[in-house]
Amino acid sequence: MTDLRELLGVRPGHLRLAAIDTRATPGVPDRRAVNDDPKAWSREQVAAIGQDLSAYQEKLYASAKEGAADRRVLLILQAMDCGGKDGTVSNVFHGVNPAGVRVVSFGPPTAEERKHDFLWRIKLALPQPGYLGVFNRSHYEDVLVVRVHQLVPEEVWSKRYDVINAFERELVDDGLTVVKVMLHISREEQQKRLLARLDDPTKRWKYNPGDLAERARWQDYQQAYEDALNRCSTPAAPWYVVPADRKWYRNWAVATLLRQALAGIDPQYPKPDFDVAAEREKVVAAA
Ligand code: AMP
Ligand code: MG
Predict the structure, then answer these.
(1) What percentage of the chain has pLDDT greater than the value 70?
(2) Residue 63 Cα to ligand 1 middle (Å)
(3) Measured in angstroms, how far is the CA atom of residue 194 from the centroid of ligand 2?
(4) Predicted structure pTM score
(5) Whose CA is closest to 206, among 217, 198, 216, 214?
(6) Which of 58, 142, 234, 270 gets the highest tally of CB atoms within 10 A of its CB?
(7) Ligand 1 atom with the shortest distance to the CA of 118
(8) Per-residue pLDDT tens for 92-137?
(9) What is the arrangement of strands in the sheet containing 176-184, beginning at the earlier edge strand?
(10) Which of 222, 237, 231 is nearest to 160 (CA)?
(11) Residue to mutate (ligand 1; options 105, 141, 207; most atoms within 8 A of CB)
(12) Sorting pLDDT into bands at 50, 70 and 90, what band is 35?
C-alpha cells in the first residue's frame, strides 16, 4: 500500500483543489473487500484503528507523566460548511479513551479573544503532553473566513501565513506532532448535505441560514484554502487534502493519517523508577 501521507500530502505551491476528485478514494488497500460493502469495511477498519489510537494515547500519556516526555498530537480539521468535521471527530475517536482526547471548536472570536493576537486563543487550547488534541477549525480561519470577508485589511491577513509557519515550527520543535487535514467536498455535495439538514428534523439544528451567504462565496473560499494550504504545508507541519464526499473514505483516511503520526512517535511505557520485586513484597506484606 502506498503511504497515504504521500498520496494526500500537499506539495507547497502545487495544490489545485479543482484538480482533486472529491469522490476519489486514494490509498484504499483492498479494493475487492471495499467494493463489496465500503461502509462496512470502513466501519471495521476505523474501529480497529481506534483501538490502536487508544493504545498509543495511553502510552503517550504514561511516557509524559512527570515530565518524562513532552510529546503530544494535534489534529487540525478544516473544511467548507458541511464538510464533515463533526462526523469525522465522532467516528475517528469513537473507540478512544475520552480522558485522553481534547476537542476544541473555534467559532467567531469572543470580545475577550478579539483583544488579543489571533494565536492567543489557539495557544490556550493546545493539547498538554500525553494528550490527543483536535481542533475543529483553527488559526487557519484567520486566513480563510477573515480573508474572504475582509474582516481585517489585506496587509494584516497576508502576513499571517509566515506567522503561522513560524508558530507551528516552534510547536513541532517543542514536541507537538500536528496532522493538518482539509476535508474536501464538492459544491454539489454541500448542497446535498444542506438539504439533508433541512429535511431531517434531527439535523435541522445544524442548519444556519447564514451558510448560504458563505456558499455564494464558494470560489473565494476555494482560493483562500488553496493559498493557505500551498503556503503553510511545510516539512514540519504538512497539510493533507482528504477527498470527503464519501464519508466512509474520509473516516478511514483521517484515522489512518493519525495512526501513522502516532506510529512515528512510537511512544513507550516508561521504565519503573522503583524496584518492582521489592514493591511487590511490600504490597503482599501490607495485607
Ligand atoms: P460552526 O463550525 O458551524 O460552528 O461555525 C463556526 C463559525 O465560526 C464559522 O462560520 C466560522 O467561519 C466562524 N469562525 C471561526 N473562526 C473565526 C475567526 N477567527 N474569525 C471569524 N469567524 C470565525
Ligand atoms: Mg456551521
Answers:
(1) 99
(2) 35
(3) 10
(4) 0.97
(5) 198
(6) 142
(7) 19
(8) 999 999 999 999 999 999 999 999 999 999 999 999 999 999 999 9
(9) 101-105, 132-136, 72-79, 176-184, 239-243
(10) 231
(11) 141
(12) confident
245 CB near ligand 1 (under 6 Å): no
Q: How far, in Å, CA of 28 to CA of 229, rounded?
A: 24
Write out the H or E segment, with its range, that includes residue 229.
Answer: helix 218-232
Index of the ligand 1 atom closest to the CA of residue 149: 21
Q: Ligand 1 pocket: which of 119, 145, 151, 194 to mutate (most atoms <8 Å of CB)? A: 145
Q: Determine whether 62 is exposed, middle or buried from the number of CB atoms within 10 Å of its CB (0-12, 13-18, 19+).
A: middle
- Model confidence at 67, pLDDT cuts 50, 70, 90, reads low
Smallest CA-to-CA distance from 73 within 46, 52, 87 is with 52
**166-225 tens-digit pLDDT:** 999 999 999 999 999 999 999 999 999 999 999 999 999 999 999 999 999 999 999 999
Q: Which candidate, 9, 97, 100, 87, places its Cα nearest to that of 43?
A: 87
**Cα angle at 254 between 251 and 260, to 5 degrees?**
135
Distance CA 176, CA 130 (A): 10
CB 100 within 8 A of CB 212: no
pLDDT value for 229: 98
What is the reported pLDDT for 66?
65
Q: Which is nearest to 55 in space by CA: 263, 271, 264, 272?
A: 263
Q: Is 109 in the pocket of ligand 1 (CB under 6 A)?
A: yes
Q: Of the candidates 245, 248, 267, which has an alpha carbon nearest to the alpha carbon of residue 47?
A: 248
Strand pairing report for 101-105 and 239-243:
unpaired
Cβ pair 136, 103 in contact under 8 A: yes
Quote the cell numbers at residue 168: 507551528
